[in-house]
Write a structure and sequence with these properties.
Elements: E1 2-4, H1 7-14, E2 20-25, H2 31-40, E3 46-51, H3 71-81, E4 85-87, H4 91-94, H5 107-110, H6 114-117, H7 121-137, E5 145-149, H8 153-165, E6 171-175, H9 195-201, H10 203-217, H11 222-239, E7 243-251, E8 269-277, E9 280-287
Parallel strand pairs: 1-4, 2-3, 2-5, 3-4, 5-6
Antiparallel strand pairs: 7-8, 8-9
């Protein structure tokens, strides 16, 4: 496996290949990331992963400075998973000057849910992903694939829409959420949890599963009943000491609120949630 730190070295390493399969990450890797790498391998003739903690997607009060940087351990795990090239640029390499040009995703998708509670988050995500795509795919002559996990459900939708609207020759592949034995979605931020919080953390996924069951049971009058079901789910988590941002049922196609017709096709729905447990903010989702 080859580790490179500059765009020039990355492009030189990729020049002999035609079809990169790319897994962008912020490092501190877990099995979910490695599953994406293994999924990527048969999709191209070289498997690339990036490790970069992107300042643009963090608000001033968030955990940019304390986000775990574990490059050597990440590289060891990526090599074992079969990654060919790791791109780990310094901040000055990707942002040699203040980033004045930024990607502004449409509000109807990017200013709801995560975008509502983390203003500017998807601007930072889209901007860095666009840059990384230019770095990884500039030498490609064949099919290009990029893989993102479904745990960040809204994020992969925003990126997919960006690729479509800009006509980029990149196919976005969504990998299934990887979970611990008790059902907790794997996340780099799980490492922030205390032992007691880790035992409690699975309650978010349980609450979302219960909300999905309640929504399916209420499909005959879904638009009228959803708000009450969501509020009840949030109250139940709050009573356990959580600070929920949202637990909600949305349409898979666009993450908008379901309409009456959607009650006839519950398989088109997704439940999503975000809540803070102690100092750690966790997200999860289930397709109904």
């Amino acid at each position: 496996m080859q580790l490179v730190h500059t765009i020039q070295d990355l492009r030189s390493a990729l020049r002999p290949f035609n079809s990169p399969a790319f897994v962008p990450t912020m490092g501190n890797l877990h099995e979910g990331h490695l599953d994406l790498v293994r999924t990527a391998q048969p999709l191209g003739d070289v498997t690339v992963s990036s490790i970069f903690v992107n300042r643009l997607q963090f608000a001033p009060h968030e955990d940019f400075d304390t986000y775990p940087r574990t490059l050597q351990a990440d590289c060891d795990r990526l090599e074992q998973a079969g990654c060919d090239i790791v791109f780990a640029p310094a901040e000055k390499e990707l942002y040699p000057e203040p980033q004045g040009y930024k990607i502004q995703p449409p509000a109807d998708l990017a200013d709801i849910l995560e975008g509502h509670f983390r203003p500017g988050f998807f601007i930072g995500v889209c901007t860095v992903v666009m840059k990384l795509f230019q770095c990884v795919f500039s030498e490609a002559k064949g099919p290009r694939h990029a893989l993102f996990g479904k745990k960040d459900y809204q994020q992969q939708m925003v990126i997919r829409r960006m690729v479509q609207q800009f006509g980029m020759p990149v196919e976005i592949i969504a990998g299934e959420t990887q979970r611990a034995a008790d059902g907790l979605a794997l996340s780099s931020r799980n490492g922030y949890l205390s032992e007691a919080e880790r035992a409690e953390a699975v309650q978010l996924s349980l609450a979302l599963r219960a909300l999905a069951r309640d929504a399916l049971a209420a499909t005959g009058a879904m638009p009228e009943q959803l708000e009450g079901l969501e509020a009840r789910a949030m109250r139940a988590l709050a009573m356990r000491g959580w600070q929920p941002d949202y637990l909600t049922v949305r349409r898979r196609a666009d993450l908008q609120l379901p309409k009456a017709a959607d009650a006839l096709t519950p398989q088109s729905l997704v439940v999503l949630g975000a809540a803070r447990l102690g100092r750690t903010r966790l997200i999860d989702n289930f397709e109904v």
